[in-house]
Amino acid sequence: xxxxxxxxxxxxxxxxxxxxxxxxxxxxxxxxxxxxxxxxxxxxxxxxxxxxxxxxxxxxxxxxxxxxxxxxxxxxxxxxxxxxxxxxxxxxxxxxxxxxxxxxxxxxxxxxxxxxxxxxxxxxxxxxxxxxxxxxxxxxxxxxxxxxxxxxxxxxxxxxxxxxxxxxxxxxxxxxxxxxxxxxxxxxxxxxxxxxxxxxxxxxxxxxxxxxxxxxxxxxxxxxxxxxxxxxxxxxxxxxxxx
Length: 243
Description:
The chain is mostly helical. It has helices spanning 6-25, 39-60, 69-88, 97-112, 127-148, 164-203, 208-239.
């Protein structure tokens, strides 16, 4: 059985048997029937729960006259992403801001939770970045169809009808490669950051690892920004007026 974090062990103790029974009824046999919830899944659940609590706190304390520090922080984040979207997508980008903000917060806190002793970054496991990349992929494709209707398919044929047989497979491969690119970039950087920090903590437990914790912190923010930036660029291509 894989080594469980303490929070994972609690979830498996409370919900493991029921989840295993449900999976077996669906024809899915987990590798560890006694512990079907993995560490990465447990960390995702914890991040989602934390964000929901924070959202409720921010919503309850919203004020026009006397905004608090937490409200200022979230307003700054929303304003930053909204401004970036307007520069990349255009003036009709406001509708995409909620998705981009939610995606940024989820990835950021999944990156940062690994800095807390007793936890680990779920984005350092390939399945979690892959899930985020798939969600981003289907979102911008859906927005493309919503914006242009069936005409969105012309986006894959290129500007010249004669080149359509050549362009369609190239475009399909290009769009699918975006999922792989988003996944590998986020996973590789977070996995490397976790491994470097772990190695230096085991070799020199005092002093020097603080530098690598700071590096991990910077990488967490940078990779979140890059993931959201690329998603915004893909959105811009999907909803561009000229296609």
